[in-house]
Amino acid sequence: MPDATVTSATSPATIRPEEAAHFGALAAEWWDPKGSSAMLHKLNPVRLGFIRDAIDMHWGGDIEGAKPLAEKRALDVGCGAGLLCEPLARLGGEVTGVDASPENTQAAAAHADGAGLDIRYIPGELGSAGLGHFDLVTSMEVIEHVEDKQAFIVQLAAHLAPEGLMVLSTPNRTLKSRTLLIGAAEAVGAVPKGTHHWEDFVTPEELETLLEDAGLSMGEPKGIAFSVGKGLHLSDDMSLNYIVTARHRPA
């Protein structure tokens, strides 16, 4: 298992400054469901449904319980302004959010304070923060933006407790995702221009290899698809986006 005390001296940089600047410029609008992060607001309930089911299956908790993360530490990497951190805190977790952009963590902290939620937010590289282990590690739509994808996955693995659960989501690199997530979505303003670079998208097969090389085993991925009737929803169709769990491999 990778050592949890990853430091800036031992961990390669994963942040692309231009990506941090791009998302930092959107910080003020992050919590506006009709603003530049509107797509994330639509995506968040779908991801949360998957995460809640994964939590219940992993720990065998009460599926009706309101606080399945009680007494558990949760880490969201690439947290933006806290769209996922806040629901995780309401599920009972002791939540930490890390983001490349100081503007995002400032906006996240201000919003959490206004909501009466105790969430710790940290800007910068995960590997240099010295945060230790977490029961739940999440990173939503982030790996496609990092410089060194293998180093990033190793950092996530280093922060995952031995019996912990990881949840990742990312766009798939397909013709459909190039056409819809970049071409159409940016053309109509659903996603800010320059948000995505198709060549950086990661296929499920590639992600599985990255996870295996970091000592993790990947669960069965689930697609996040779009239809006019259902909007964004969990699906067997992974051609646009997918979400998946990972765990440490048994010793």
Automatic annotation (TrEMBL):
The keyword Acetylation does not apply. It catalyses: a 3-demethylubiquinol + S-adenosyl-L-methionine = a ubiquinol + S-adenosyl-L-homocysteine + H(+); a 3-(all-trans-polyprenyl)benzene-1,2-diol + S-adenosyl-L-methionine = a 2-methoxy-6-(all-trans-polyprenyl)phenol + S-adenosyl-L-homocysteine + H(+). One of its GO terms (biological process) is methylation. It comes from the Bacteria. Pfam families: Methyltransf_23. Keywords: Methyltransferase, S-adenosyl-L-methionine, Transferase, Ubiquinone biosynthesis. Belongs to the methyltransferase superfamily. UbiG/COQ3 family. O-methyltransferase that catalyzes the 2 O-methylation steps in the ubiquinone biosynthetic pathway. This is Ubiquinone biosynthesis O-methyltransferase. The lineage of its organism: Bacteria, Pseudomonadati, Pseudomonadota, Alphaproteobacteria, Sphingomonadales. The gene is ubiG.
